[in-house]
Amino acid sequence: xxxxxxxxxxxAFLTELPKCEHHLHLEGTLEPELLFPLxxxxxxxxxxxxPKNADELHETYNNFADLQDFLNYYYIGCNVLIKExxxxxxxxxxxxxxxxxxxxxxxxxxxxxxHTSRGISLKVVTRGFERACVKAQExxxxxxxxxxxxxxxxxxxxxxxxxxxxxxxxESGVINGLGLDSAERPFPPELFVECYELAKSYxxxxxxxxxxxxxxxxxxxxxxxxxxxxxxxxxxxxxxxDPELIKRLxxxxxxxxxxxxxxxxxxxxxxxxxxxxxxxxxxxxPFSINSDDPAYFGGYILQNYLELYSRFGWSKAVWEKIAxxxxxxxxxxxxxxxxxxxEVAAVVSKYPNLA
Length: 355
Ligand SMILES: Nc1ncnc2[nH]cnc12
Ligand SMILES: [Zn+2]
What we know:
Pfam family, one: A_deaminase
Strand content: 5-15%
CATH superfamily: Metal-dependent hydrolases
GO molecular function, one term: zinc ion binding
InterPro entries: A/AMP_deam_AS, A_deaminase_dom, ADE, Ado/ade_deaminase, Metal_Hydrolase
EC number: 3.5.4.2
Family: Belongs to the metallo-dependent hydrolases superfamily. Adenosine and AMP deaminases family. Adenine deaminase type 2 subfamily.
Bound molecules: adenine, zinc ion
C-alpha cells in the first residue's frame, strides 16, 4: 500500500537525518540468528513447541495475533540471556546496526524482572547493557540513557522490590529513567503509583515514562501523566480519541514515542497509514519514531522512517520538524541537544532539491 516512492535521494536524506530513539527494548533486538546460538552456548532448553531454527522463528514473527501473543515469544527469548557478556553482545549488535542508520541518541529500555526472576542479578544485566552503551558512545558517538521498565503483569510487591534493589543504580545515575511495559489493558497505571514514587525518591533527576494508549484507551495516557508523573508516553496513539488530551499533550509538549511497524505487527492498526500521525503534526503533538522490538517486528529505526515516508510522503520541512521534536523531547542535556540540532540543519541544507 505504498503511495510514495522512496527514491534514492529520499532514502539518503532519511538515512542521514539525525535520529533519536526513545522506545527500544534491548531484549526486543534479539534476532533469531543470535537467539539459537545463545541458547546452545548457555545450555538453555527451548519449549518443545518453539520453532526449531531461525527461518521458522522469523516466519512465526510474521503472524502475531496481538501484544500478548508477541510477549509470549519475547519472554521465551529472554531466557537465553544469562551472562554479562550475553547482555553486552545483544546491545552491541543493536548499536552496530543502527550506527549506519543515522542514530545519534538512544534512550533504551530493559526489563530487569525478566532476568532476576531467573536468578540473574540486576547488576549482571545492567553492567552488560551499560558496557555496550559506553562503547556506543566511544565508537559511534551515540549518546545513551538506560531506562528500567517494570513488568506490569507481575504483582506490584515484586515491582516495588525491583525498584528497591535498583536504588544504588538509580542514585548513581546508571539508570536514568523508569518505564512500565508488558500487557497493558488489565494492568492500569494507577497500580504502580507507589513504585514510581519510590524510584523518584532515590533520585529527583530520574525521568519517568510509561507505555500507555497502545492497547489501553486515552485514560491510560491521562492517568500515566497525572498519577505516575510521567513526562512522556510510550506509544500513546489512542490519545487521538480524546481531543482534550491532544490539546494537553501539545500545550505541555509531552512527547509520544510511536512505533509504526510494531503497531502493524501487533494489529493495533492494519496499515501504517492508519496511524494518527498527521493529526499529531497538525495539532503540534510532539512524537518520535521508534522501532520498539525490531527483531520481532521486521525493521530497525530507519525502516520505520522509510515506511512512514512511503505512506505519508511528508516534505523535507515535516521531516525537519520531526527530527527537531525528537531531539527536544530527549533527556540529554542542552549542549547535546544543540549539537544534534545543528547536525539536523546541516543535513537539511545538504539536500536543497528535495521538496
Ligand atoms: N510493545 C510493547 N508493549 C508492551 N510491552 C512490551 N515489552 C516489549 N515490547 C513491548
Ligand atoms: Zn514498547
